[in-house]
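Q: I have 296 residues here and want to know how they pack in 3D. Can you give me a structure?
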Amino acid sequence: MSKLRDKIQIQDQDSEEVEIDLLELFQYFRSQILILIIALLVGGVAAGAITHFLITPKYQATSKLYVVSASNNKIVDLNDLNIGTSLSEDYTELIKIRPILEDVIKDCNLDYEYEELLGMLTIAPVGETRILAITVESTSAKEAMTIANSVAATAVTYLPKLMETTAPNIAEKAVLPEGPCSPNLVKNTAIGAIGMLVLVMAVLTVLFLMDDTMRSAEEVEKAFGVMPLTVIPEGDIAEISDKREEEIAKEKKKAHKERKKARKHKEKKTIRSKNKTNNAESAALMQSIKTKQTVR
C-alpha cells in the first residue's frame, strides 16, 4: 500500500458516505486493549462454564458388520464382493426398521420409543468398503456400548431371514468409550472467547463511528475545508467543587500556621542567641575588671 492510512468508504441508504480510517480504528482498539482482554477472558470463561456445568456429556460406541460371505465352497469370489457392496446400502436402511429397533429396546430393557432410539443411531459404510459402522450416541457410556452391540447382533439374526441371503459377520464389537465425544470443552471455550471479542469489537467500532469529536486541526480542515485560526491548548478546566474549595482553604490555613510557628521558633532562637552573646560579653567585662583590680 502506498499510503500509511488505509480508508474504507461505506455508502448508506441516503447516499451519505461514512469514511473509516483503519489506522485510527486500530489505534482506538489499542487504547481499549484492556476492555478487549477482559471480553476475551469473560467469553472464554463463560463458554467453558456453560459447557462444563450445563451441557450433558455424550458418549459414542461403534460396532462393525462385514457384509460379504462366500457363496461357493467357502471361497469369496468377485461376485460375492459385488453382492456385498450392493447389500451394504440395503443393510444401512434395513437396520433402522422398527422391528429390529423394537427388539433392541425389549432385549436391553430400554426406556425409549422407536423414534428416540432411531435418533441415537447412525449407520454408514466405512469408506468404499463393505463394512458397516453402527454408531450409537448416548448420555451413558455403558448404554451406548450395549445398544451398539445389540443392534449388530439383532441385525445379523433378523436381516438374512428378511432378505433371504447369507448372514453378515460381526467384524468388531463395541467397547466402552473412554471419554465423552461431546461437548468439546476446548473448542467451545475458544468459540466463546472469540465470539465475545468480536462482539465487543463491533460495539467499539460503532461507538468509534458515532463519535464526531474533532481532536486535531487536520480533522477540522477535513470536515469544513478550512484551517482553524488558532488552537486552544488542552488543560483541566473543570470547576472546583465546594468540597475541594474547603480542602484547599484548610490546606492554606494549615500552611499559614506552620509558617507562623516556624517564624516564632526562629525568633526564639534569635533571642536565645542574643542572650548568649550578651552573657558572654558581660562575663568578659567582669573578668577584665577583676584583672585590673588585681594589678592595682
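Q: Anything worth noting?
A: The two ends are 113 Å apart (CA to CA). The chain is about 60% helix and 10% strand.
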